[in-house]
Amino acid sequence: MTAPDSESLRLLVLVGELGSIGAAAAELRISQPSASKRLNRLERQLGLALLERTRQGCTPTPAGEMVCGWAREVLAHVDGLMNGVRALRAQQESKLRVAASMTVAEYLVPRWISLLREALPEVHLELDVTNSAAVAEAVRHGQADLGFIETPDPPEGVSVRYVARDRMVVIAPPGHPWSTLRRPLTPSELAATPVIVREHGSGTRETLHRALADVGATPVAPLLELRSTTAVRNAVVAGAGPAVLSTLAVATDLAEKRLVEVPVADLDLRRPLHAVWRSGLQLTGPAAALLATAMRAPD
């Protein structure tokens, strides 16, 4: 009898947990027929009936329950082995792959990298600048060793650590009617006005929508949808319309009066900034050093 492969064991454990071959197949991103064939092959390989199949789903047989328990232990060791290999490889290669959301990448990460290079000059760092949703996906799929996001709610399936707090503001060009208001906007007025926004998946856009939803307001369709913080800022400076951006992105413009901050009553536009990395993996080497650097930086 040959030993079963780890992916077949992982599939069996998922069927036991989810009660369905289809659900387990979807979790592993394989087709249901392929999953069924793999489970049939596993049962023939072990010479045991592992699952009871009914119209309502699948449940492990008594033998299947025991095999599932052993399989979990085996998979934990396999995952530990692979995580250890990844950590060793990262240390040996001194290579760090970082993904960061736009605002964090443009206004915070450069300083963190500079401090890291002072301590670890041999580190070769690759930075992918994208939106928060794409950062989380890159981390989940092992395409980035460490990520930084600005969404109000940390994503599932990753390890998360608070790094800093950011504040967003409503901005308008000096000639806009909002620039001369003698009172704060109401959340309803902001929600009812088309503004320039980032694309779906952006932490900036998600924070605005969450803040409005918390006070019972739903934003209308945007005036413009742009794919970078810089593009949104430039559009507002050019007079295209108002927007909501991080103070990190517009502090100089506000100080030099190229833009005007528009107060909004009873709307919380603060947001946490988080570091994320692959769930179950302990950060080591350059990734752990960069996280420590970011957390030591002023909040």
Question: In terms of quaternary structure, what is this?
Answer: single chain
Distance between the termini: 59 Å
The count of DSSP E runs of length 2 or more, i.e. the number of strands, is 11
Strand content: 15-25%
Principal-axes geometry comes out as: elongated
CATH architectural arrangement of the largest domain: 3-Layer(aba) Sandwich
Quote the CATH topology of the largest domain.
D-Maltodextrin-Binding Protein, domain 2
* Coarse structural class: alpha/beta
Largest sheet: 7 strands, mixed
Number of domains: 2
Q: What is the number of helical segments per DSSP (H or I, 4+ residues)? A: 12
Q: Percentage of helical residues?
A: 40-55%
Low-confidence residue ranges: none
